[in-house]
Design brief:
Number of strands: 3
Low-confidence stretches: none
Number of domains: 1
Oligomer: single chain
Strand content: 15-25%
Mean pLDDT: 89
Distance between the termini: 24 Å
Structural class: alpha+beta
CATH architecture: 2-Layer Sandwich
CATH class: Alpha Beta
Length: about 80
């Protein structure tokens, strides 16, 4: 599994999930219940994961819909 999206916007993960599933790409949301720990103030990001083989297609779907996917910084 690869991390596709990391956001503190609680509406973005369900929206991105719907877009991906509409394209036949399976995804899995992590950290969706973190609000019970943080008191619903939105400081902890939610993550959306996809299969490694679907990562490039999933990034394309998000970008085509105006969502910038998460890409870890390359370490030198």
């Amino acid at each position: 599994m690869e991390e596709l999206l990391r956001t503190t916007d609680p509406t973005l993960v369900p929206f991105a999930s719907a877009l991906l599933r509409g394209e036949g790409i399976d995804c899995f949301a992590l950290d969706t219940n973190i609000s019970s720990v943080e008191g619903s103030i939105g400081i902890f990001p939610r993550r959306l994961m996809v299969r490694t083989e679907d990562l490039d297609d999933a990034r394309r779907v998000l970008r085509d819909n105006g969502i910038e996917p998460y890409e870890p910084e390359a370490w030198l």
